[in-house]
Specification:
- With about 190 residues, this protein is α+β, with helices and mostly antiparallel strands.
- The chain has a single domain (about 1-189), classed as Lipocalin, CATH 2.40.128.20.
- The chain is built from four helices and ten strands; from the N terminus they run αβαββββββββαβα.
- The protein has helices at about 5-15, 40, 155-165, 180-185; strands spanning about 20-25, 45-50, 60-70, 70-80, 85-95, 100-105, 115-120, 125-135, 140-145, 175.
- Strands 2-3-4-5-6-7-8-9 form an eight-stranded antiparallel beta barrel.
- A hairpin with a 4-residue loop joins strand 7 (about 115-120) and strand 8 (about 125-135).
- The longest helix has 15 residues, at about 5-15.
- Bound molecules: 2-acetamido-2-deoxy-beta-D-glucopyranose.
- 2-acetamido-2-deoxy-beta-D-glucopyranose binds next to loops.
């Protein structure tokens, strides 16, 4: 079998085995938030929508960013169906100081850092995060719509969808995260 066929078959089995978003073609290079200021970005964000991925499968998702000596600390929490809280810590850093909105996030020493590009944020309301990695003829995409509140106005969501659409992301693949107050109460502890 030719190498390309082997790679394609491998990718297809990965695709079939995971909820990760794989698409044919190379990663787009969307514009990112101008003059991104990480110090205004830190604090807690609620996950409103995301592209399905293999490491977040609960509801009530939050991401909390904090300034650490050498970079940014990341704490992702979510409520699993069995009522337990899944918490994962990582770190983020800016690779190139001339592009401060392009961060790299890593959760485990053993796995390579993933791109975390802030496409749009007003720091106090919403954030739109996109990450994409090339895998040969395919790309693997991540996207999160985050909010400082457990909800986000519909018109803001529509604006963020149009940014994603311009970047070539199929927004109908976005999954809505349940942030229902009663459901998410265990997260307060
Ligand atoms: C976008 O995703 C939806 C839902 O998975 C799918 O039905 C549709 O064909 C996709 N559209 C494109 C252009 O890929």
């Amino acid at each position: 079998m030719k190498a390309v066929q082997v790679i394609s078959l491998t990718l297809l089995s990965v695709l079939a085995a995971s909820a990760q978003i794989f698409s044919p073609g190379k990663c787009p290079k969307p514009a990112v938030q101008e003059n991104f200021d990480i110090t205004r970005y830190i604090g807690k964000w609620y996950e409103i929508q995301k592209l399905p991925n293999t490491f977040q499968w609960g509801e009530c998702g939050t991401a909390t960013y904090s300034l650490k000596n050498a970079g940014v600390g990341v704490l992702n929490r979510e409520l699993l169906a069995d009522g337990t809280i899944n918490a994962i810590t990582g770190s983020a850093k800016v690779k190139d100081p001339s592009e401060p909105a392009k961060l790299e996030v890593s959760f485990y020493e053993s796995t390579p850092p993933g791109p975390y590009w802030v496409l749009s944020t007003d720091y106090e309301g919403h954030s739109l995060v996109y990450g994409c990695t090339d895998f040969g003829l395919f790309r693997m995409e991540f996207a999160w719509i985050l909010s400082r509140q457990p909800t986000l106005p519909e018109e803001t969501i529509e604006e963020l969808h149009s940014i994603l659409t311009s970047a070539g992301v199929n927004v109908s693949k976005l999954a809505v995260t349940d942030q229902d107050e009663a459901l998410c109460r265990p997260m307060d502890q």
